[in-house]
Amino acid sequence: MENKMKIEIWSDVMCPFCYIGKRNFETALEQFENSKHIEVIWKSFQLDPEMSQVAKENYVDYLVHRKGMSVEQVKGMLANVTESAKQVGLSYNLDKSVLVNSLNAHKLLQFSNTKGLGNDLEERLFSAFFTEGKNIADLATLTQLGKEIGLDETELQTAFSDDSYAYMVTQDIAEGRHIGVQGVPFFVLDRKYGVSGAQPPAVFLENLEAAFKEWRELNPESKLKMASNGPSCTPDGICEE
After folding, report:
1. What are phi and psi of 234, to 5 degrees?
2. pTM to 2 decimals?
3. Could you give the CA distance from residue 102 to residue 53 in angstroms, rounded to a whole number?
4. pLDDT digits (tens, 9 = 90+) for 87-97
């Protein structure tokens, strides 16, 4: 298996700037000529681990109570966030968002990471929460989302029944705090460069290039000098003399 430079992203599915940051990062990655040598790993972070598993407030009421802002201020802030999302091609319906504890969603993320589908699930969770108004604490809903990205329905139930996945969530959070993550999204490139927040694609690209340059110096690409060629077969079944 090829050695790749790791990029770890601490995120919470309920963070509106995390989805925007994901899009901006992906835009930068598309422009990065060495993207095939990058491995993206999604890490868990909970903005409000004390939130109920049952929805009790809408987005406006929750932020009014938590931030001490007026209703008008909160509505203005959410309108600005919605417009920022629109600028990167995302459609936010925050009036439909179901505010519940994100722990179950993070358990499923940890399970998905073990299957190499962490990025797919993160995308599906963001869309479900911010656009579709789905309950990301509901196990039936999460099961359906997991199936949609290719996870086995029976097997993925272990994400909710096996305590090891909940432990992985707490470990990610503790690890993030240890390296200085105080808010999300937070991008860590090769454990040397940290990028905080939903930065523009140009910022991500600049840091990608800097981090990869250093990584490549320590991990030179192995290139064999071909001494001779003989009859061979390719992976697509073509055999030639």
Report:
1. -90, 165
2. 0.90
3. 8
4. 999 999 999 99
